[in-house]
Amino acid sequence: MAAATVKVAGDGIVEPPRSALIFLGTGCSSALPNLMCLIQPSDPPVTSAPNLYPYRRTKTLITGFSICSSMHVYTTLLWCNTSLLIDYYSAEGKHKYILIDVGKTFWEQVFRWFTFYKIPRIDSVILTHEHADAVLGLDDIRTVQPFSPTNDIDPTPIYLTQDAMKSIAVKFPYLVQKNLKPGQEIRRVAQLDWKIIENDCKKPFVASGLEFVPLPVMHGEDYVCLGFLFGERYKVAYISDISRFPPTTESYISKDGGQQLDLLILDTLYKKGSHNTHFCFPQSLDAVKRICPKRALFVGMTHEFDHHRDNEFLEDWSKRNLDISLFVFRPTVVHVDDLVDALRQFSLYTESLGCVHSSIFRSIHGNMIIWYGAWMKRTHENKQLLSATLLSVLANVASMAILIEHSFFDAYAGESRDGSPAAKFFTGGIVTLSSATLSANETGVSYNSLPIFKDRFHKMDGATAGVCLKSQSMPRIVGLFVWKSLQCCYTYILTSEYRKTVVRYLDGFALDIKYDVFRVVYVSGDSVLNVQFCPQHTVLENEVDKNEVYPVVQEFKDL
After folding, report:
1. Which CATH class is domain 19-32+78-319+538-556?
2. Domain 322-534 falls in which CATH fold?
3. Alpha helices, DSSP H only, in 179-294?
4. Are the C-beta atoms of residues 510 and 289 closer than 8 Å to each other?
5. pLDDT for 93-113, tens place per residue?
6. 232: which residues sit within 8 A by CB, 6+ positions away?
């Protein structure tokens, strides 16, 4: 979806415009490729393209030199200075374009992405600090302003700290100067309106109608840089340059501090070790564990990173940091809606315990209710305490239902029709769950069945996604599939091909198999829930499709 257009769904329904985050660049301060890799190439020379993106996968061992050399060959592969464009669709029905940082590669970013996404202007600019990779594109702001040889145009607001203002006044005196000196000619320059902000979490400001909270962080022990927290319904923290979190800032954006981020965008310079002015991969992962956002994206990378391989690592890392809980109930009351209402209240309560999202499934054919919850990974001891707390809270539904069983699960495999790393379902949607209890000597069936799971999914025309779950406390696996409609679900289940392959395959194991069809009657948040089976925290630069390079775009319905 282009950031400023209306999206038309496959069924012809026009979806309302949305706010979006467009990553104009996620490279380090010197951008990529590293020019030293080109003027002093590796020996022997590179002979094959690196594994930069999924469609260029090879078995070649990738080095920094090979990545940069291949970027030189594929001229569209330039990782620009880290910069974020916020396409804010306001309540008044207007798009506002807010840019965070204007670095050395700003002209390239406008040429490549503003034209592609039809971005018509910049309404305001926010600066994290005054280093070259954040401000040296300020002069080029005039290229996206209306032309006036006499500079008779409305200036673009620039939000920055007083220290940054002092530095920029030295770097760009002609952009700061208010009045011409006697005899000085008028020259066309960017017209900017400098607005001073504080490096204090308690002093938010508003840019183009959207509120921002400054997040002071250390960028080296002698320098304070700003990140920003923004979003009304979805909380996003953008921190592009950091070497250490001050305790007050980390507490402000962490789940333990009282507000869980929907998205954390975080600095990650080198793949190994540490750096005096930036987070590196190990420190970024540790920060994600402490802050516990629902999702994290890493930016500011050097040529050490390999897009595909490192995302595979993060996929495995993320799976180890998400627990799925299932509570299965058999109602004992006639009015099951009362039980569903009680479980809705239970869902609201679990948010205070760290539940990322939750949902309620109601059996269409049988007498069963399932409560689903996703949690950030925790220790075994903490999980036992959590289970005890949840069971004590659920005691108030004992008069309405019998708790048949409950367990924590790992999502160890999944497929989706659109290629996304999550199975998405919504209130009113259809899901099927198949549960198999394994005998002691057949626990390996959970992984042995993966080939048939993947093969069958691509033949299930009516299914949009599927996830395999494995219990952490008992020999049990659960398959969850999301369907386009109830009719699509029945069509597949009743086909003879299904009975001949899947059922026949499972007959070879001593399994206690249960299967049922459910309607989703509740989803926390925005009535859409993502069952993550791939990375929660992902290193991303530019996504690739058909030999073209596109910036990462994160859409939000109501930012």
Report:
1. alpha beta
2. Alpha-Beta Plaits (3.30.70)
3. 247-253, 281-291
4. no
5. 899 999 999 998 899 889 888
6. 211, 558, 559
